[in-house]
C-alpha cells in the first residue's frame, strides 16, 4: 500500500475520541485497520486506547470490538478466533475475518505477556499489535519493562540519588520471534507505508503474528504535540528503534538511515531524558549510545546471516 492508497481508505477508527493531542495511537490504529478492512474483530486490552476510544455511550470503532482486562487480550481473541474456525468448519461462516488485538506495553510486555505467549504457542490465527509508548501512560506514567534506560517516570524519578530507570528495556520483538512464528516485525508511527506493508504480511500468515510499533507520547515523554512523527523518525534515524521484520526466521531491516545520527539528537527533545545531559550523568548517556550501536550491529549481522 502506498501513501495515496492509504489516504483514500475510509477510516474504521473515527474522530471524536479523547486521545491526547499529538498521540500516535490513532495514527497506528487507522493504518492497521486500513489494511485489515471491515471484516475485522478487534480485542483491546485496558489502556490509553481502550479508555479514550469507548467512553460510554460512545465508540470510535467501526468494527466489532471487544474490551477485556489488562492481562488477557490475547486469550480473549483466541476464544473469538477459535469460535470462528469452528463456525467456518460447520459452514455457518464463509467469509475471511481478520482478528487483531491491540495492547500497550503495560498490557503486552508485562501484565499480558503470559496470555500472549500462550496464544502464540497454540498458534491461533491472529495479529497482535503492541503500541509501545514505553510506560504505563494511562495510569500516570509509571515505568514498565519497555521503559528505556535512563528514562524518568513517576516510579523512576530522576534526581540527585537516581538517574531515572536503571534497567535496560525488554526486547518484545525477539521474545515473540522465539515462539517460531511465521511473521514478527517492528514498526513505527512515522513510516505508515512500512507499517501497512507489515500488517498485510502479518494478516496473510497462517497462524499468529506480532508487530510492535513505537508510539511517542507527548504528554509523558515531554515534547510539543506537533512533533510526534518527528520524534518517531529520529528514533529510527539514531537506530534507537530499528524497523525490521522476521519472516520465516529471516531478518530484514526495512529502514536504514542514510546517516546514523547520535542518540543525543533523539533524547534531547524529550523532557524525560533532560537529566541525562547533566555532567554527572555523562557516563549513562555514553552507555545508552554504546548499547544502541551494539544492538544495531547485532541486527545488521542477523540480516546478513539470514541471506
Key features of this structure:
alpha/beta; 8-stranded mixed beta sheet; 12 helices; 13% strand; Rossmann fold; single chain; 307 residues
Give the overall average pLDDT. Answer: 96
What characterizes the major β-sheet? 8 strands, mixed
Distance between the termini: 25 Å
What's the β-strand tally?
A: 8
Per the CATH scheme, the topology name is Rossmann fold
Q: What is the CA-atom radius of gyration, in angstroms?
A: 19 Å
Low-confidence stretches: none
Approximately how much beta-strand content do the residues carry?
5-15%
Shape: globular
CATH fourth-tier homologous superfamily: Thiamin diphosphate (ThDP)-binding fold, Pyr/PP domains
CATH class: Alpha Beta
Please give the domain count. Answer: 1
With strands numbered from the N-terminus, the spatial order across the biggest sheet is 2-1-3-4-6-5-7-8
**Tally of contiguous helical segments:** 12
Q: Label the CATH architecture.
A: 3-Layer(aba) Sandwich
Multimeric state: single chain
Which structural category fits the helices and strands? Answer: alpha/beta
| SSE arrangement, N to C | HHEHEHEHHEHEHEHHEEHH
Helix content: 25-40%
Describe the structure.
The chain is α/β, with parallel strands linked by helices. It has one domain (3-306): Rossmann fold, CATH 3.40.50.970. The chain contains twelve helices and eight strands. It has helices at residues 3-8, 25-36, 48-53, 73-89, 106-110, 113-122, 172-177, 192-203, 218-222, 228-237, 264-267, 282-306; strands at residues 40-44, 65-67, 98-104, 127-132, 183-188, 209-214, 244-247, 250-253. An eight-stranded mixed beta sheet has the order 2-1-3-4-6-5-7-8, sandwiched between helices. The radius of gyration is 19 Å and the shape is globular. The two termini are 25 Å apart.
Amino acid at each position: 500500500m502506498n501513501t495515496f492508497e492509504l489516504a483514500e481508505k475510509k477510516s474504521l477508527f473515527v474522530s471524536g475520541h479523547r486521545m491526547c493531542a499529538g498521540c500516535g495511537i490513532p495514527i497506528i490504529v487507522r493504518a492497521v485497520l486500513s489494511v485489515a478492512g471491515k471484516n475485522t474483530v478487534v480485542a483491546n486490552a485496558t489502556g490509553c486506547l481502550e479508555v479514550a476510544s469507548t467512553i460510554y455511550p460512545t465508540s470510535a470503532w467501526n468494527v466489532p470490538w471487544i474490551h477485556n482486562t489488562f492481562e488477557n487480550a490475547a486469550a480473549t481473541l483466541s476464544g473469538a478466533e477459535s469460535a470462528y474456525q469452528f463456525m467456518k468448519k460447520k459452514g455457518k461462516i464463509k467469509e475471511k475475518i481478520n482478528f487483531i488485538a491491540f495492547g500497550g506495553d503495560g498490557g503486552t510486555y508485562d501484565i499480558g505477556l503470559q496470555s500472549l505467549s500462550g496464544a502464540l504457542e497454540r498458534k491461533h490465527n491472529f495479529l497482535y499489535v503492541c503500541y509501545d509508548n514505553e510506560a504505563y501512560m494511562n495510569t500516570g506514567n509509571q515505568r514498565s519493562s519497555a521503559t528505556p534506560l535512563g528514562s524518568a517516570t513517576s516510579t523512576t524519578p530522576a534526581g540527585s540519588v537516581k538517574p531515572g530507570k536503571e534497567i535496560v528495556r525488554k526486547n518484545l520483538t525477539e521474545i515473540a520471534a522465539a515462539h517460531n512464528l511465521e511473521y514478527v516485525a517492528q514498526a513505527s508511527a512515522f513510516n505508515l507505508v512500512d507499517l501497512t506493508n507489515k500488517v498485510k504480511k502479518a494478516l496473510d500468515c497462517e497462524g499468529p503474528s506480532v508487530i510492535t510499533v513505537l508510539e511517542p507520547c507527548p504528554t509523558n515523554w515531554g515534547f510539543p504535540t506537533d512533533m510526534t512523527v518527528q520524534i518517531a523518525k529520529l528514533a529510527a534515524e539514531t537506530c534507537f528503534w530499528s524497523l525490521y521484520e522476521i519472516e520465516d526466521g529471516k531478518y530484514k531491516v526495512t529502514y536504514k538511515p542514510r546517516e546514523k545520527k547520535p542518540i543525543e539528537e533523539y533524547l534531547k527533545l524529550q523532557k524525560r531524558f533532560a537529566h541525562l545531559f547533566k555532567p554527572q550523568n555523562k557516563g549513562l548517556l555514553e552507555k545508552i549510545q554504546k548499547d544502541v550501536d551494539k544492538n544495531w550491529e547485532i541486527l545488521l549481522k542477523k540480516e546478513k546471516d539470514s541471506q
